[in-house]
Amino acid sequence: MTGASKPQFARRRPRSLSDYFYDPKTRGVVLQILVALLLVYFISEIVSNTIRNLEEQGIASGFGFLDRTAGFDISQSLIPYANTMTYARAFLVGLLNTLLVAVLGIILATLIGFVIGVARLSKNWLIATLAGVYIETLRNIPPLLMLFAVYFGVLKNLPAPRKSLELPFSSFLNVRGLYVPAPQWEAGMSVVLAAIAAAILGIVFLNWRARRIRIQTGALKPVVLPSLLLLIGLPSAAFLATGMPVTFDVPELGRFNLKGGMVVLPEFIALVAGLTLYTAAFIAEIVRSGILSVPKGQSEAAAALGLKESHAMRLVIIPQALRVIIPPLTNQYLNLTKNSSLAVAIGYPDLVSVFAGTVLNQTNQAVEVILITMGVYLTISLLTSVLMNWFNARMALVER
Amino acid sequence: MHRQPPNHASAFSANSAFNWVRANLFSSWSNTLLTLLGLWVSYFVIWSALEWAVFTAVFTGEDGAACRVPGAGACWPFVVAKFKVFMYGRYPVAELWRVNLTYILAIAGLVPLMWPGVKGKLWIAVYCFVVFPILAYFLLTGAEWLGLRNVPTSRWGGLLVTLVVACVGIAASFPIGVILALARRSDLPLIKWSAIFFIEFVRGVPLVTVLFFASVMLPLFLPENVTFDKLLRALIGVALFSAAYLAEVVRGGLQAIPRGQFEAADALGLNYFQKMGLIVLPQALKLVIPGIVNSFIALFKDTSLVLIIGLFDLLGIVQQAVSSDAKWFSPQTAATGYVFAAFVFWIFCFGMSRYSAWLERRLHTGHRS
């Protein structure tokens, strides 16, 4: 650079070509133009190749195929589905199945992960060691292998329907899945649902009031017990008041097969079990490091202030540990959601298996199908990140 | 709950052993209850594992007949009979020495590379990343001019494919990842946003869809008459996927380097490549070696997904053997195969994670402000 910024010392002269060559700004612009050209060339090459290849194979492009009749069955569906419906409907069924596995897996993995993470820190040597063995074993085995082990190794070895294993609550387990009583909702059920909603609102209000009183006066109002009472009491009261508006369609052992009830697919059980056990090992490590990250002085200070151990835990330790736990925990939730795509390997009808598998094979619309599938996962990931960043910002340490 | 790292100090004399048991296992009634629960769980797990793997297991047999006895446990002769297939796939038996030689050459390079304190890392790195890949390529695929018969990749399988995918994946993704990390921290908006777009896109989708992308869409992108080997397509997918994750690891290292280092390099008049290559990257990469090993472990586990696009890695070949070999069919064949595969994967991943932890402790002594 010439000393252009200090004109009193610089010899004013027209800038030569070499000045531009050594000017970081000019270089940056030139470099970016080169990269842009390269990207444009690359993309146009890919697009033109793809168009030509598709034409040669006689595949029409566009999203029109979504309105065509799917013509295949899906073994599990949360919404009404028949093979006469469209590919778009099949896509929705697959998406909902993916979300079902992801939500259930996240809840279970969090529960198991927290228990094992806390057990890993136990003063009891045996419990801590058992938790450590669990973590080190499960973390170091591919999740797909776990799915296969649960699915082909265990569930496919179960007896045939005729010799079903009988479980409590008139459930049956056999090679075709877990047969459980199917609840049949009757008229009064909407009242019970409304009671559940009211209970949740009540709990939110209770917490809000307790927090306000604590901040204003410092008095601690009981929260956990009333919340539990509300959550259990209100719906049960509504349930009894409306005359128990639910009956169960109980599966019965017939001559060759089970009749009635509701089937939980073995593929579903294997997927949820495999993903849960695998992810729980990672969550346990996150929980452990989160709790360890809170300095010892914090619990000592809480004790010095006269807080009970449970209060110290809830009001001092856990809020601070959560700060460390939440970002990696979010990552694990996303990993579990993405890993649910392993369903394709054992034939659970998730998004990838239904859409990028069957629909792709039937329609040959590779570009559209893969882009839609990737788009769905990308949307889930970005939404979760946005949500968690917001939550994280709320939890973050407010410094002076 | 206890918030300190538990200190289970071991003790050997009888008296202190008794005290240790009392303090760590039976200090209160709740602790005693936990201990009893733990004992019951360990008894249950260890006993059923032993019963399955040893006491009721079948150790000899020519086919699945011996394993079809009711109540029989693990079917070990199946693993013995299939061992070669699990390790090498359908690689011609007469040429197996080439695979083994490749392994030996790899170990000869990797051990000194990974051992801190060995001199001449640069030359070892040149061997590992330039010389060895060329040697390995010709050894594994064959070179007629050297008298090595061609072995098409469709005959590769088992642990060989797992190792090839994992090693090529990490070796190819490493330079891409470093470039992406540097690009993401660049001041030039176009370069920065291209890198962010790529990294966040790849990290936002599952590897399965990336592999589908590589196997279904990549052939459409290519000009006429250019076809890619199936294994190569999977390798491209895996390398791009892993590069995005590695880029984030390296970015973490770049962010940990104090600003003064960049400024000092600028003050010395170093240009961008000198600054990054001589000052920043050596420090940043040293900081993130454990992170790199961790992403290698993740990649190693993820290689099992290539079976979804029809390649036979270790898990894929075990899966094929247990599901389609009628000769060895028995109720416990599948479980035995999976336990064996799990054991192999576990040895590799656990070994690497121990290495990573050991390295972290060793590197921790360095200057880390």
Task: Explain this structure.
Chain A has 400 residues and is α+β, with helices and mostly antiparallel strands. Chain A contains 13 helices and eight strands. In chain A, the strands form three sheets. A four-stranded antiparallel β-sheet of chain A has the order 1-2-3-8. In chain A, a hairpin with a 3-residue loop joins strand 1 and strand 2. In chain A, helix 3 packs across helix 8 (266-292) and helix 10 (309-339) runs antiparallel to helix 13 (366-395). Chain B has 369 residues and is mainly α. Chain B has two domains: 30-90 and 329-369, no CATH class; 91-328, MetI-like (MetI-like fold). Chain B is 70% helix and 0% strand. Chain B has helices at residues 14-25, 29-55, 76-88, 96-114, 121-141, 159-184, 189-204, 207-221, 230-256, 259-267, 272-287, 289-302, 314-324, 333-363. In chain B, helix 6 (159-184) packs across helix 12. The interface between A and B is large, with 64 and 67 residues.
Give the SSE map.
The complex is a heterodimer of chains A (400) and B (369).
Chain A: H1 17-22, H2 24-57, H3 87-120, H4 125-139, H5 143-154, E1 165-167, E2 171-174, E3 177-180, E4 182-185, H6 189-217, H7 224-241, E5 246-249, E6 252-253, E7 258-259, E8 262-264, H8 266-292, H9 296-304, H10 309-339, H11 343-346, H12 351-363, H13 366-395
Antiparallel strand pairs in A: 1-2, 2-3, 3-8, 4-5, 6-7
Helix pairs in contact in A: 3-4, 3-8, 3-12, 4-8, 5-8, 6-7, 8-10, 9-10, 10-13, 12-13
Chain B: H1 14-25, H2 29-55, H3 76-88, H4 96-114, H5 121-141, H6 159-184, H7 189-204, H8 207-221, H9 230-256, H10 259-267, H11 272-287, H12 289-302, H13 314-324, H14 333-363
